[in-house]
Amino acid sequence: MANRTLVIVSGRIYLRAGSRDEFLRRSTEAIVQARSTAGCRDFVVAADPLESDRVNVYEEWESEEALAAFRGDGPGEDLSASIVRASVSEHLVSCSDRR
């Protein structure tokens, strides 16, 4: 088996009060586009069940190149006006045991 690096992007985004539903609605295009992009294994933007101003993000990509290609061609609609703060990290995983 060839050595491959999996890329995981995960974190939390805090939004202006009352803007979460609109942020999630406007994120749908990015989710659909990502999931149909070669190299995307998963892409989720979801409401946090405990904090009404928070969304959680999770992305799983087969390579850094696949992620970079998506970011370069991603949707143009800017959602940043709703964001108060964010803590999102990119993780490179060189070994993963699927069960």
Describe the structure.
There is one protein chain. This protein has a four-stranded antiparallel β-sheet. The chain has a single domain, classed as Alpha-Beta Plaits (2-Layer Sandwich). With 99 residues, the protein is α+β, with helices and mostly antiparallel strands. The longest helix has 16 residues. The protein contains two helices and four strands. Helices cover 26% and strands 37% of the residues. β2 and β3 form a beta hairpin. The two termini are 17 Å apart. 12% of the residues are buried.
Topology summary:
Layout: E1 6-15, H1 20-35, E2 40-47, E3 54-61, H2 64-73, E4 83-93
Antiparallel strand pairs: 1-3, 1-4, 2-3
* Amino-to-carboxy terminus distance: 17 Å
Instruction: Note the main sheet.
Output: 4 strands, antiparallel
Please state the second-level CATH architecture: 2-Layer Sandwich
Total separate domains: 1
Shape: globular
The name CATH uses for the topology is Alpha-Beta Plaits
What would the keywords be for this entry?
99 residues; 4-stranded antiparallel sheet
